[in-house]
Amino acid sequence: PEPMPDPEPETEPDSEPDKEPETGATAGDPQRLIPRWLVPLLIGVVTITAGVVTWRAGQLASSAAFEDRQSVGQTIKQQQQFTEAGLSTVNAAVGYVDYVADYAEAAAIDDLAAESEEKGNTTVAAELRRDADELRLAATGKARAVGVFGTESVLTQVVTESDQPLPFDIEKELDSRQAAASSGITSPGKLDPDGWADKADDTRTRVRALRLATVLLLFAVVAYTVAEVTRSTGTRRLAFVAGSIIYVVVTTTTFVSVF
Description:
By secondary structure, this protein is mostly helical. The chain is built from six helices and no strands. The chain starts with about 35 loop residues before the first helix and ends with a helix. The relative contact order is 0.13. Residues about 15-30 have low confidence and may be disordered.
């Protein structure tokens, strides 16, 4: 029998080339330069920052409402004080008219006394002069009672024994009564409704700025989200840079000048 040929040796299939181990930030993506943990962390930081800005905007909105109420309330009180001072001044002016009329009548009696004295009726003249003095004294007391004059003015006239009526400046009286109304014991103090209104406007401007900052921070979140989910290296880098710029600029501006 013919000899059998030797069987050919079996060849092992070529082994696959060795793969580089996946480690660190480039795991699964050799071109990824941004660590996988960084973008989610930044999304969380931006979200927390937006929440803080929103909270502050709510606080300032409450402050603006309080300042508006103060402005309205003080405007009402100021108008009330002005009205009360005006009515008081008008009543004093009416009382002053009566006061001047009584003094005019006393002057007429003095003239009669002078005529009687010229005719030799000294007794009648003395009685007339006494009546004139009593009329002036009564007129002064009535004027003081209705608030035309203060005690100091009345005492000055009594001491000087003047037969001329005291002057009355209605503008000065109005200013004086307004000042007394704003500085009295029951007065709420110095009223500044315009100042409160300006402060409320400034606070509302800050609220609008904070709300705008919140919207811009949401754009930063969107940019970071794109950087997280995209497979394009260029898009990932562009979105990451855009989100970082928005976050840094908005946060710095808000906390330095608005917050």
